[in-house]
Amino acid sequence: MEIKDSIVDLPVQDPENEEFSSIDLTWTKFGSTDQHVDEVALIPYERVDAFINGECNNIECPTRFHIERGRKRVPGSLKECKDDEYLLYRLYWCSFGPENYGEGGSILPSRRYRLNTRNRAARPQSMRGCTCHFIVKRLYARPSLALLIYNDRRHVNKSGFVCHGPLDRDAIGPGAKKIPYIGNEIQQQTMSLLYLGIPEENVLQTHIEGIQRYCGSNAKVNSLASQYVQKLEMIIKRSTHELDLDDQASIRMWVERNRKSVFFYQDSSETDPFILGIQTEWQLQQMIRFGHQSLLAAHSSFGISKLKYPLYTLLAFDSRQHPLPVAWIITRTSAKRDVSKWMKSLSDRVRAVEPSWMVSGFIIDDAAVEVDPIRDVFRCPVLFCLWRIRRSWLRNVVKKCSNIEVQREIFKRLGKIMYSIWDGSDSVVSLEEFIQDFIDQTAFMQYFKESWVPKIDMWLATMKNLPLASQEASGAIEAYHVKLKTKLYDEMHLGSIQRVDWLVHKLTTEIHSSYWLDRYADESGSFQTVKEEYISSTSWHRALQIPDDAVILDDKDHLFAKVVSQEDSDHRHLVWNPGSEFALCSCSWSIQGNLCKHIIKVNMVCQKKHSDYHPSMSFQSFREILLKFWRKVVDDSIALDQSVAWTKQMHDTIQRLVELSNSSNIGSVVSSLPVKWVSKKGRTFAGKRAAYTLALPPSKESVYQRKHRKRKRLSRLRGGSA
């Protein structure tokens, strides 16, 4: 076959099938020298996912491909480029490699750890040292095309033997053709169902349906599948969190056994506090997928009074904007030095897989959180979410005030204190008036003075200094909080709640399985009941199911609103203080301290149809930021020039993003971007450098240094010859 040295003349292949693999493409040998030749093919960039899915569904070796390495260039960063230069570079590797956790074990330099196993792995989902991998290059000169470079198409190990799948005898034992293939996805699905308490009959039926994708249906397969499910259920029932009677020793043993799920560990000592950062491989992939150029949120200080160490959760927002835990940090310290340690370790782990990964914003939910480590590590804006203070106030208002009308008025006045940072009123005066007006509510006032008066200024200052997150974000973080509380604070486990190993076991088994199954059900379309519960798990999505005409507003005084119940049309929920985040609803979900769907729906209608209501706090915060850009200090001053420059920069960025999202030909948009000059070291030249360059004449000092070095070399040569 002819070896081509350019990809300009390669045809663009676009198979008609919804999914296609390497056998559906015509491969061309490409290389600059005889020693280095690759098989390449050109496809539309939008069909890359279809190609990857087709490769995963290989009948002989079904697998998954993960991103082993990745690089990215900014459009306009190259002055000149070759025809095969990349805009986006990704190395996809079969998930049964590259490490080999069988005999001996091997590891790539990019990985920091490996499992020391003496015996050859007995399960096909273990790392088998598979060498199958390919590269996807989004071309710099033609961004609408992708260059596929297949380095090794065979699913074999370094010895050349098939290392996984139905044909791998060592992986699945004797009788390879009769033993059903159980991949990582099927095993995770089965374990998730068992952890969630699904009856064994239903789990077995789902498990058999999964393995029938790889082998036919017969009595032998069904019998072995039944044995496999029973064995997994027995393992789960017998598994225990107590690896040692001593909690600290038990955690050390767990960390040693699960190094791939630990991104940071610091044992407690006289100088260092205890910190344990947990992130599974699946969570890492979700963080890369949903966190890139999107938002991350912190759910902090969970269980600060009940657990031995509070739980800090890092959340990403998935395709439905639902909260998805992508990392758990168990620690009591909030010092800047300690937070920077685990944040940097987590960021390094993500960028080791995807170097171009970046975050658009980071949401915090506590005014006491240190924001400097977030800005230093993630290099993104920090937003502030008020779900925690709203929930705490509402729960205590309902708990400590028996009169419903007093509850409504107290909660409304608390909201006015928060809104005071924009309406020009003095927050100190508003706070003093609030305390005087409700001095007879002794139980609530005692709680408020002890818990919030000392730190209310800190919260108001944080609201002024940071942009505020939306109600959708508040509802999402609160939904995660409610689910976490339900799973962990079970009466069956109250005796173990002070052990860290119990918390780790609970997070990595039941809670992890729950979120994995939610995502799997949503993406695959299976488990309709799980999918429906997952979709309606946040108040925001439940509010979207309520039609606008079900909301009846009090147009006269704007004191309340009514929402017609979707289950019973004769029943109406009463929402007081409509249009505000500090509204109070008569439904049971709101009385428990939660942000209910009726309040969110009423606020949607108020903002959409009526201008008499105050805009949301997040919108007022956003408007204040824009006004700061626009506001000028003195006419014809440098401050005005700076404001104009910032505003122009933001306008150009937004305009460019709009063009990219609306354009059907991304190449035309990229070609119109200005050339971005970078350092000399980072440039790529298509041809040879010029033989001459313009430069300043050398100084006398530099000439003297060169002559001095020449004399030293000559003296050494003479001394050596003598």
UniProtKB/TrEMBL annotation:
Source species, domain of life: Eukaryota
Keywords, ordered alphabetically: Metal-binding, Zinc, Zinc-finger
PANTHER family associated with the record: OS09G0309100 PROTEIN, ZINC ION BINDING PROTEIN
Domain SWIM-type: 560-607
Protein name, per record: SWIM-type domain-containing protein
Pfam families per UniProt: SWIM
GO MF, one annotated term: zinc ion binding
InterPro entries from the UniProt entry: Znf_SWIM (IPR007527)
Listed transmembrane segments: none
